[in-house]
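Q: A small favour: would you put together sequence and structure tokens for a protein?
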Amino acid sequence: RTAARIARARPLRAGIPVVCVGNLTAGGAGKTPVSAWLAARLEAQGLSPHILSRGHGGRREGPHRVDPVGDTAREVGDEPLMLAALAPVWVARDRVAGARAAAAAGAGVVIMDDGFQNPGLAKDVSLLVVDAGQGFGNGRTIPAGPLREPVAAGLARADAVVLIGEERARERLLDRWPLLRDTEMHLARLAPRRTGLDLAGEPVVAFAGIGRPEKFFETLRGMGAEPVACVAFSDHYVYPPEVLRRLLRQARSQGAMLVTTEKDAVRLPAAFRPEVVVVQVALEPEDPDALARAVLTRLRPAEAQQ
């Protein structure tokens, strides 16, 4: 069905270059950290990047420029609200309209966070983000498996793959899916941002409503934290007050810190956020200059055509 929709489509241009950061599975690959990293690198090149999102979990249809102070996750979605602290972000169900609104507002390039399977907006660069630990699951498409489309079809449309994970997981994935080796590949990991807080040896009650909560729990253990409880919720979960009170009671009863992700934090009531330690993660490419060149060398011809 995805292949037929893409084959029938006549993609429209936004008037400025578009970089798509997508994946082949349903959630949890690491697209948002890649988009954040890419926005910083393109900004350093003077390209004035704006980020475009569908705004999953939010009510606004858009095009709407996210206000990081005035908007809420219920209005615009958690990922757009989180990214709006780093770069201008637009939410739009209609990706073409969203990209054109960004262009009219002065964007030099649009970073489309997700949308690899959306054929309506013409893309100048397409990056596929792959989580080495999750891989492609059982290799079957939804609903039989986690894939949005077959692996071979997706890789054929990608300019490059950003493979995120530790070396052992990467090698297992490449052994199972050798066709990945035929694609331009950039290796990376997600690492906690350095803060003044040292969690080493600290008991924590961790909770997360993201694509793969276990990744967050593994990150905490890697930081030396000692989880006494790990509570997983569905992606984009909206926390009722009684759930938050229960988590806080659990942490206090065990003398532990209550810890969550940056994405979860933007969904918490403002009054509750001081009760929670927020752990942020950032993309760390093995060769950041090579990943930047992979995008920029494909963008420059696109820029020249505008």
In short: The longest helix spans residues 288-305. The CA atoms of residues 152 and 179 lie 8 Å apart.
